[in-house]
Design brief:
The complex is a heterodimer of chains A (76) and B (146). Chain A is mostly helical. Chain A contains three helices and two strands. With 146 residues, chain B is an alpha+beta fold. Classes of the chains: A mainly alpha (76), B alpha+beta (146). At the A-B interface, strand 1, helix 1, strand 2 and helix 2 of A face helix 1, helix 4, strand 7, strand 8 and strand 9 of B.
Chain lengths: 76, 146
C-alpha cells in the first residue's frame, strides 16, 4: 500500500515490476478508510470491520468491484 | 475488561506514548501479569488481526496502524515520531491519535518526497494517489507484503 505522485507513475511502477494496475484511490478516500478503520483503535470497544461492513464502507467511499470485496475469489 | 483487551490497550497505548513497540516484560508489568500470559494473549490478538508478530512469536512487528520497525512512512504528531506500516496506516496514525500530524513518505516510482499535513478534519488538498496491489480478500495472506 503505497503513495504515488500521479497515475502515470503508478503505471510506470506497475510496468517496471510486472504488476497489474489496481484501482487508484485519492487521498481523501484514503482518509475515509483511515478514519473508519482506526479512529477508535485506542479505545476499549474498538474492533475491525467485518466483511459485510468492509464492503459497505468501501462502497460508501466509492471503492467498488471485486478488488474491494473481502469475500471475492476473483484474485486467487 | 477481559485480559486480551487489557493487553491490546496496553500495547496500543505504549505505541501512542512512545512511538515504539513495547517489550513483553513491560507489557506484563503494565497489565500486572507474567510474560507467558501476555505472550499467549499476543497469539490470540494475532488471530484477531490486531497484532502481527515477528518470527520469535513475542516481538510486535505491527499493531496497525503502528509499525514496530522503521519504515519509509514516518508520521510526526506533537513532536513525536511514529512509523506506519503503509500509506493507509500513515494517515491512520493521526486518525487513531485524534491529533494533527505531518506524514512524510515518498512516491514509490519517482522517489519524490511526500510531506502531507493532516488535520483533525483530514489531509490538506493534494493530487497524490494511493495504490494497493493486493485485493482486499488477500490482504491478510501476507500482511507484511500487503
Amino acid at each position: 500500500m503505497l503513495f504515488f505522485r500521479s497515475e502515470e507513475l503508478v503505471r510506470d511502477w506497475c510496468a517496471a515490476n510486472d504488476y497489474p494496475v489496481r484501482p487508484l484511490v485519492t487521498i481523501d478516500q484514503l482518509w475515509g478508510l483511515a478514519m473508519t478503520w482506526y479512529s477508535t483503535r485506542l479505545q476499549e470497544n474498538s474492533r475491525r470491520p467485518k466483511p459485510d461492513e468492509m464492503r459497505e464502507i468501501f462502497g460508501r467511499l466509492g471503492l467498488e468491484g471485486d478488488f474491494w470485496d473481502p469475500r471475492s475469489d476473483s484474485f486467487g | 475488561m477481559d485480559f486480551d483487551t487489557k493487553v491490546k490497550l496496553a500495547v496500543y497505548r505504549h505505541f501512542a506514548e512512545t512511538g515504539q513497540r513495547p517489550s513483553l516484560e513491560s507489557m506484563a508489568a503494565r497489565v500486572s501479569s507474567d510474560v507467558e500470559n501476555v505472550a499467549d494473549a499476543y497469539v490470540r490478538l494475532r488471530s484477531q488481526r490486531v497484532l502481527v508478530l515477528e518470527t520469535d512469536g513475542s516481538s510486535i512487528r505491527m499493531a496497525p496502524p503502528f509499525s514496530g520497525v522503521p519504515t519509509q512512512h514516518v508520521v510526526i504528531v506533537d513532536g513525536k515520531q511514529y512509523f506506519a506500516n503503509c500509506a493507509w496506516d500513515a494517515l491512520a496514525i493521526p486518525a487513531a491519535l485524534h491529533r494533527s500530524g505531518i506524514v512524510y513518505s515518498r512516491c514509490e516510482q519517482s522517489g519524490e518526497p511526500l510531506r502531507l499535513a493532516v488535520g483533525s478534519d483530514g489531509p490538506e488538498a493534494t493530487s497524490w494517489l494511493f495504490h494497493c496491489l493486493v485485493a482486499a480478500a488477500k490482504w491478510w495472506d501476507d500482511i507484511v507484503f500487503t
